[in-house]
Structure formats: structure tokens, C-alpha cells
Automatic annotation (TrEMBL):
Residue ranges annotated for the Glycosyl hydrolase family 13 catalytic domain, each copy included: 119-465
Family: Belongs to the glycosyl hydrolase 13 family.
Catalytic machinery residues: D283 (nucleophile), E315 (proton donor)
Cited PANTHER family: GLYCOGEN DEBRANCHING ENZYME
CDD domains: AmyAc_4, E_set_AMPKbeta_like_N
UniProt protein name: Alpha-amylase
InterPro entries: Branching_enzy, GH, GH13_cat_dom, Glyco_hydro_13_N, Glyco_hydro_b, Ig-like_fold, Ig_E-set
GO molecular function, one term: 1,4-alpha-glucan branching enzyme activity
SMART domains to which the protein is assigned, alphabetical: Aamy (SM00642)
Originating species: Nostoc minutum NIES-26
């Protein structure tokens, strides 16, 4: 079936543009420019796949004025980066991305306050344990979904999956925003992954790189200063310059449009509608520095995702309550201070009660609700805990004991917990020094007794969090502390009777028959680890606390 297919290019300050493609034997097809800033032409195409690109007189300052350059469509949903063209697919006379049929759109998904997030880099998540053709690909991740379901996480935060230069990278310099990274698989593969996640009750968030782009992003080639700042946005902070930066302040008065707003708004809408994503982690929000735009974009995401839940997450280093609701634009913020202060408490380098309480109860930092912070011990940007411990000469059983203490605090603190892939079984590789150097996680570690025990420990903790409303709300009370003994106890409760107490010993000393006064009132308390009832006296309770461990007591 043949259809008349429109090709258009928004380039309001450019003089001329033409379409070239396999359907014209790569000969130029003239495009007409409208008063709305779009160049347009129509081509009659039979069903099938075609290659194409635009030839435009550039306005970018790194070219000769009005020089003719070939550019890939900034809205291309599939590209061949090596041959520098976009791919358009036609079916029944209409443009399509692919023919994937969603299977699990009707499955209920967890709300934001119920989340336990797992950060993942697709390229490094699988290795020798899967078929070679699936390593580092969406299909390899699909094979691991039953493992993730067993672990208990209910959200995956994918590091960038937009098309980037080369075949391996962390992906933080996006070149093509509407196309998925071709080295990971096809558009159908990514949809299948997200669909299978939804079928297991797992939400999928994408990493949104909306502060900057790769130097050869098509917008850079068309008219750099229309979409980007001409110079570095923050010249006083060159260490945090990651590439050409979108100019969200630029307003085209003639067309009544903010070009960067429109483009990135279209990007987010596309990924929600086409790939059914459930949230966005906004990279480099401190550098992006436009809360008005972020507020608009976050609201657009929630509108397009409705009635499904949607989560807008900021990466703002250092973290700040100003970026989240009720007064800021986004729902949650990566809680960098949790990592920053928790690690030295786990390694034993310091014990500062007030700092510790601030990160366990982010209300003390000005955050309002439990979904305002995403707590973590490690991320792709931070060393894993086992590496931090090893760097300080703490290995084997001693290291895994402290990893369990850290796990308890991560899962029971106020805020949304997030694990960096492999953390749950004690991956210890050092953070890569290069974003282009492959570093797959070592699944063989799971065969080790200590590693498997840590996995089972995380599994139990995550199950406890997911089934306990007290761990999902914004209530936390510190009812006992002893700075000399390096001990802290806190209580998390819910109005319908769910109650959890955590008693953490950060010291090198075993605290036997330790008396804790002012214990919260309940009908009964159960030691969650020992699965036995804890006796309460009028003035509190007595418990044994080995060095670098935490006890969890629950009352339902």
C-alpha cells in the first residue's frame, strides 16, 4: 500500500533545505519553507523501510555561513550512525516505529512511595552467563528479569538508552534523542524489555540527558545558537561542562516558541507514548538550572503518562530540597548526602550522630515527603561499598557484615532506596575511570557463600520494605542514641499499626545485654532476623548487638 508521507524539518533561521534518500536514489527533493519555520515535502512511498537525511544550509558558527551540510533528522526514530542516515518505516501507508504489540499494559504498577529502584547499565549488566548474542543487550536483560523479580526490586532506572556515538559508552552524550542505542538491540527489543518488566510489576525509568548533547547532534549542525548557548553556560565551573548545553532561555518571539523547550518536550512525550516509560531521571539538573522548564516538563510527563504513575527524579549534586516538591519542580532527588555521610560511618572513619540522623530523616534537610529523596550507597558515579571497604583494608566476613549493616539502613531509612547493579551480591569492581571502557558485573560472585548470603539478606530486606507501610511513609523518630557506644535506634510507624524499630551498632564492640530505654509501645515486638519475640520491660528492653550490625524489630 502506497501513502503520501510528509518529511519536515524545523529550521526557522535556515535559508534552504532538501530531502535525499534511498527512495530518490539520493537525489535532492526540494523542500518548501512555511511561515511556521518548517521545511516540508511529501513523497509517495510503498510499505517498507527507507533511508533518508536532510541537506540544509547551516547556520551553525563552526561552518562557513550557509554552507550545505547533510544532517540526520533530529526526530529520526531509527538511524544508521555509521552511514549517517535515518530510517523511516512505512506500514499501511503510515509512518511507524515498529510493529510491536504490547502485552501487559493492564498490569498494575507500584506507586512512587512503594518503589525499590535498581540502577542498570544495559551494556554491563550481562556477560558470559548469557548467550553471546545477548550480552550487553536488551534481550540479555530480559533473561535476568526473573532474577530481579526474585530480588524484589520494582523499578529499573536505565542509564541512557538514546543513540550515542560508538558501540560502548555510559551514554551521557546523546546524539539522537528519538532513537534507541543500536548496540543494545532494536526498538522492538527495548519495548519487549519494558513490557516484560511491566508484566512483573516492575516500572522502568529512563535517564534523561537534557542539559547537553554530543557535538554532532543534528541540532548542532543545523543552527547551533538557536538551540544551544553560544558559550559555556557556567564558565566558572568548567569541570562540570559535559558538552554543548541547551539554551532553555532562548525565546523565538516571531514564532512564539522556546526551541529547546519544544524539542525536549517532544522527546519526553515520544518516550512515554512509544516506549511506555514510567519516569525520568533528569541528569545534571544543577547545570541545566532552569526550574521553570523542569516544572513544565515534569507536568507534561505526568499528563502523557496518566493514569499510570510517573516519577520525575533530579540528579542535582549536591542534593537540595529546592529541586523537589512542594516548592520545587520535580518529585525526588538523588540523595547524594546519604551516600556521602553513610559510607564513612560504615567504614568506621567517623561517627557524627547529627549528620547520620539528617540523612536517615531527610526532613531535617528540608525535604517534605518520603518520595523526595532517592537513597543509595553507590551509583555508576560512585564506588561500590565493597570497594570502599577494601580500600580501607576491610575484607571478607568483616566487609560483608558491614555491607549488611549498610543494607539495613538503606532499606529502612526515610526515602526511596536504590541499588546499583551487583551491589546486592557484593560486586566490588572499582568504578571505571573511562565511560568508554566495558566493565560487566561478575555474576560468578553469586556462587560464593558470603555473596549469596548478602543477596538473600537484601531479598528479605526488600520484601520487608514492600510489605510494611511504616517503611514507605514519612515518619521516623530517633528514640535512643549513645555517641560513646556508636549506637542509634529509630522507630518508623504507620497509623494503621505497622511499626518497625531499627537499632544499629556502628562500633567495633559487641554490645551484649545492652539496655535500650524508652522503647516504643506495641502489643508485641518480633526480632525480624531471629524470628522470635522480644520481651519488653517497663523501662525498655535488653538486646545483644554484635559489632557493625543492626537489629530490626517489627510489630504488625
Amino acid at each position: 500500500m502506497a501513502g503520501l508521507i510528509e518529511f519536515n524539518l524545523f529550521a526557522p533561521r535556515n535559508q534552504e533545505s532538501a530531502l535525499i534518500g534511498s527512495f530518490s536514489e539520493w537525489k535532492e527533493i526540494p523542500m518548501q519553507k512555511g511561515e511556521d519555520g518548517y521545511f516540508r515535502t511529501e513523497v509517495k512511498l510503498e510499505d517498507g523501510s527507507y533511508q533518508y537525511k536532510f541537506r540544509v544550509q547551516t547556520k551553525s558558527t563552526n561552518f562557513v555561513p550557509d554552507e550545505w551540510v547533510d544532517v540526520i533528522d533530529p526526530y529520526a526514530t531509527d538511524i544508521n550512525e555509521e552511514r549517517k542516515y535515518g530510517v523511516v518505516r512505512i506500514k499501511d501507508g503510515q509512518r511507524i516505529v515498529d510493529t510491536y504489540v504490547w502485552q501487559h499494559d493492564d498490569k498494575p504498577l507500584p506507586n512512587n512511595h512503594e518503589l525499590v529502584i535498581y540502577e542498570m547499565h544495559v551494556a554491563d549488566f550481562t556477560d558470559d552467563e548469557v548467550d553471546p548474542e545477548k550480552r550487553g543487550k536488551y534481550t540479555g536483560v530480559i533473561e535476568k528479569l526473573d532474577y530481579l523479580s526474585e530480588l524484589g526490586i520494582n523499578a529499573i532506572e536505565l542509564m541512557p538508552v538514546n543513540e550515542y556515538p560508538g558501540n560502548y559508552s555510559w551514554g551521557y552524550k546523546v546524539r539522537h534523542f528519538f532513537a534507541t542505542e543500536s548496540s543494545y538491540g532494536t526498538t522492538e527489543d527495548l519495548k519487549h524489555l519494558i513490557d516484560e518488566c511491566h508484566g512483573r510489576g516492575i516500572r522502568v525509568f529512563m535517564d534523561g540527558i537534557y542539559n547537553h548533547t554530543d557535538e554532532e547532534c543534528p541540532l548542532m549542525l543545523i543552527d547551533r545558537n538557536y538551540w544551544y548557548y553560544e558559550h559555556m553556560h557556567y564558565p566558572e565551573d568548567p569541570d562540570n561542562y559535559w558538552g554543548p548545553e541547551f539554551n532553555y532561555n532562548n525565546y523565538d518571539e516571531k514564532l512564539d516558541v522556546k526551541p529547546a523547550w519544544k524539542y525536549i518536550g517532544d522527546v519526553v512525550q515520544f518516550w512515554i507514548k512509544e516506549y511506555h516509560i514510567d519516569g525520568v531521571r533528569f541528569d545534571a539538573v544543577r547545570q541545566l538550572a532552569n526550574f521553570e522548564f523542569l516544572d513544565w516538563l515534569a507536568k507534561q510527563g505526568q499528563i502523557h503518562a496518566a493514569p499510570k504513575p510517573f516519577y520525575n527524579i533530579a540528579e542535582h549534586i549536591p542534593d537540595t530540597n529546592t529541586v523537589v516538591k512542594p516548592d520545587g519542580p520535580l518529585d525526588g532527588c538523588w540523595h547524594e548526602s546519604f551516600h556521602y555521610f553513610m559510607i564513612p560511618h560504615i567504614t568506621g572513619e567517623k561517627f557524627e550522630l547529627e549528620r547520620l540522623k539528617e540523612v536517615l530523616d531527610p526532613r531535617k534537610q528540608g525535604y517534605a515527603t518520603a518520595i523526595n529523596t532517592i537513597n543509595y550507597l553507590a551509583t555508576h558515579d560512585r564506588q561500590r561499598l565493597l570497594r570502599e571497604l577494601g580500600n580501607r583494608g576491610i575484607f571478607d566476613t568483616a566487609a560483608f557484615e558491614r555491607a549488611k549493616l549498610a543494607a539495613v539502613l538503606l532499606i529502612t531509612a526515610m526515602g526511596i532506596p536504590m541499588l546499583w547493579m551487583g551491589e546486592e551480591f557484593g560486586e566490588y569492581q572499582a568504578k571505571s575511570e573511562s565511560v568508554t571502557q566495558p566493565q560487566p558485573i561478575s555474576w560468578s560472585l553469586l556462587a560464593g557463600e558470603l555473596n549469596h548470603d548478602l543477596f538473600e539478606y537484601y531479598k528479605k530486606l526488600i520484601a520487608l520494605r514492600r510489605q510494611t507501610p511504616a517503611l514507605q511513609n514519612g515518619n521516623i523518630e530517633f528514640f535512643y542514641e549513645n555517641a560513646d557506644a556508636k549506637l542509634l535506634a529509630f522507630h518508623r510507624c504507620y497509623e494503621w499499626g505497622s511499626s518497625v524499630v531499627v537499632v544499629a551498632n556502628f562500633s567495633d564492640q559487641n554490645l551484649n545485654k545492652y539496655h535500650i530505654p524508652n522503647f516504643p509501645t506495641a502489643n508485641s515486638w518480633q526480632d525480624w532476623f531471629a524470628d522470635c519475640e522480644v520481651e519488653l520491660e517497663k523501662d525498655g528492653t535488653v538486646i545483644d548487638l554484635p559489632a557493625h550490625t543492626a537489629k530490626i524489630l517489627i510489630s504488625q
